[in-house]
Batch of 2 targets.
Target 1
Amino acid sequence: MRLVFAIGGGGDVVSAGALAIKLGAEVGLLPWERYVVDPEPGPLTDKDLVGAKSYGALFVLNSKTIAIRRGKAIRPQGACVASILEREVYAISPDRPPSVVAKALASRFSEITGVDVGGDVLACGCEPDLHSPLADSYSLAVLKRAEELGADVEVAVVGLGADGELSRDYLVKRAALIASNGGFLGYYAFEPQDLALLERLTSNCTTEASANVLKALKGMVGEVPIRGNSRRAYLDVFTPVFLRFRPGPLMELNKIAKLIYDNDWDVFTAAVELRRMGYTTEYDFEVYVASGLPPSEALAKAKAERRCSCN
């Protein structure tokens, strides 16, 4: 059985869901909602969910699944995608080590395609403009371990720069480094026949980066505002193209993923340990927002506290 797995949280599952339909696969995700949906910092665990079936390090969402966070009922994007696609969506338990999650995935799926919208997974983890490296890096560590357990694994990156974090030029250079190390596998692409499904998904679920992929597929070219006009994303006809990579060479460039892999940290442990080492992530940003800082100030504070290097 094949899984297309959204590795970055938020609305990445929208693009993953659409690609899964193209590839005849199941849909999965790391269940980490953006702060505009979820008031609690960090990803969802099975303890937060109502109406999900638990299978150890995996759980399964349906169209009626909700999460309770700080006393508030929220609808996870996995449940939204489940409703639109009329199928269950798999989620991993981010409070488990990558070795445990990988074993659960590899025991159920022989092929896994991890989907990142924007390109954060290509980062080293210390770039000044980087906002959300933790989800992608944790997921990459999981995928590498799943590959070692015998699954056929790849990482497919779509919408380079569509999340307004790292520049298109920088991401293309990072992709070229992976290709030079034998890590490039080829391409997928969204096509005009995918428009209707992407329209349904983006109009019902909460996503900006995946919505930018749709805008590009409809012909938009140039810069667009994102994240409350705090950042700009560049779109063109290449935005809906997926670049496919082997997880090993990709992880050699992603310092956070390598640390998580080597230490077998769950997401919550990783957030603490990485901060101690000078990395800051979306978890720190969400903690600051939850404490009452405006998002722009929270993001600036998290970035200013970054004390690491890509060298």
Target 2
Amino acid sequence: MFDLSAAAATLSPAVTGTLPQPDFVQLHHEDRAAVRAELMAGLLAPQAFTSPKYLYDALGSRLFEAITELPEYYPTRTEASIFKAHATAMAALIPDNATLVDLGAGNCAKAASLFAAFAPARYVAVDISVEFLRQALGSLQAQHPSLPMLGVGMDFSSSLQLPPQAGNGPNVLFYPGSSIGNFTPVQALEFLRQARSACIGGGLLLGVDLLKPRELLEPAYDDALGVTSAFNRNLLPHLNQLVGSDFLLADWQHAAFFNAAESRIEMHLQAMRDVQVRWPGGERRFGQGERIHTESSYKWRATDFEQLLQSAGFVSTQAWTDERGWFAVFWAAG
């Protein structure tokens, strides 16, 4: 009988249909002691808080994907309309043979939608949610087998130092979705300075949510279906896992509102009753109505953000907005 398995073993990967695999560099190694110390310091602060990066465990990442589909959440579809209308103009500014570096890549869908227009020589996906990124990038590589891809498991919120495997540029840093709004203005300036250093002869393409009336902003962060509430409250079991705390979901509700003085949406977890939360080596009593600040999303005027880019050292900028002026995509050349 003819041995099919033996014959298959002699065939090349192209003949057998073996798919290329993306490379992967793991820079983010969780230091459980440091994470616990950071989180406990925030929980014990006079105004309790946590970093928004802790919203994005595996389930949190998937819940955020669902948020982007909600009718109230305008940023994703508004930004997408800008890319659709102006991708050709954006592509004209991108250097030849550029590496597209996708910061906070998530499911990689936004960057992938621009591959045809931007024709990158290489794709580098960066995200702190490592396992989620591995799955997304593996699927994307199968769809684009000829495009070299690298995944980088990295927390770039504090340092934007790309690994040597990312190459020598030119780099186009891609930071869509208005995630820059999670930084305070001071933090945003420092991040943009680091981004400029990482561009290496390329530039930065990022989405910025613009200031608009409260009645448009608040429903985007407190939807009728309650998906954003689930996303925010999912932080509690994640804290229990990271800190060993005993938060109960039934004790907390989602709260989101626009802080006009700071020009930002704030998300909080608010105690529905007096609760005592304990963890190994510590505890805190939260009174009814007391809050844990989990995320801020700053809203910018386009002229103010352009000035911020210039302060960060970018030599030229260009912006595209939707017809209503709700959102902007900025190109900043290094």
